[in-house]
Amino acid sequence: MASSSSPPCSNTSRLLVTILVILSLASDTNVTVLASSCKRFNSIISFGDSMADTGNLLHLSSSNTPPHFALPPYGETYFHTPTGRCSNGRLIIDFLAQYLEIPLVPPYIGSKNKRRSANNFWSGVNFAVAGATAMNKKSFQQKGVHIMVKNISLETQLSWFKELLPSLCQTDSDCQKLYKRSVVLVGEIGGNDYNHALLAGISKDVVNTFAPSVVGQIAAAVTELVELGARSIVVPGNLPIGCSAAYLTHFMSNSTKQDYDPKTGCLIWLNKFAKYHNKMLQTELHRIQELHPHANIIYADYFNAARPLFLNPKKYGFSNGALRACCGGNGPYHQNSSVECGFSPSTVCENPSLNVNWDGLHLTEAAYEFIFKRLFKGRLTVPPFKTLCTVS
């Protein structure tokens, strides 16, 4: 999901960044709730956007003008301090790491100045960057979209990985061992390609035409990773973006009653578009799987994993509902693009675990945990992730 630029904040940010590097690289031992019998994997290699970024954009940003998620109340629930994650606590990648009983995956940028060796990144490395897109800058320019914020494309993230690879494995045999024990996450990615365009005022009919290029870039990245040797690649689809507080707020003035799903209050046309993207992505992944039967190409159905949260949030303990942001500004969805969470005069709800939406664009830790369980401990990955744990 998208990340916006931010105005300057206090001079304490340099100290904050130092603390965050330590925290983001620290091992986590509180895994009893999600303890796993999946011993095949002990490494995660991640690409994506703010749904997976564990600190890269924070370290790419100037210490004088850090992003708003470098400030409280981000990180308050689990880490008790901001970590560069776009939530109040853990993300799906963190729950996966804990499920596999490995340390939380360090951000590449926060760690790249350290001595590079297999030991530095034994449990994996995270290249995901908040605001990242599947398409590169040139592709956007050709489509008439000019991105004003820092953007790191999937292509760039792959180049970082290839730059780091010689320090992870020196021989073909070593690399085969690395890939065999690693889960490679490619996404969620692509959501920002649509976010940047839609929030910039590009019509939905024009944005519809972006999907083949977006999916094509994701497919190209998956193919390149398979050709490099990756064995198990998880590729998430898009969330029900019509339920995003940011989109509900942005399109509120131009929407009629017929535009909203009576069961959820979400924008119908945006969720249809997410399904369109997801169907195209699944078709491409199936094509790649047929070309590379030795690899496991796993589709993660984020849309249906999250859907129950919007159909009946109170049933799952989200008594404050699914559409109103916990942290934000005024308005019916407690979301205002001019009042970002972390900056004054934004306000935050008392108990984020009762909310699905965190800051308008991103979800709470509790919502991410719900989605994770339905994906990796349930049957909303195709094939089911659990079945890979026993595959040699």
From TrEMBL:
Molecular function GO labels: hydrolase activity, acting on ester bonds
Endpoints of the signal sequence: 1-31
Gene3D superfamilies with a match to the protein in the record: SGNH hydrolase
Pfam families named in the record: Lipase_GDSL
Keywords: Glycoprotein, Hydrolase, Signal
Alphabetized InterPro entries for the sequence: GDSL (IPR001087), SGNH_hydro_sf (IPR036514), SGNH_plant_lipase-like (IPR035669)
Family to which the UniProt record says this protein belongs: Belongs to the 'GDSL' lipolytic enzyme family.
Official protein name in the record: GDSL-like Lipase/Acylhydrolase superfamily protein
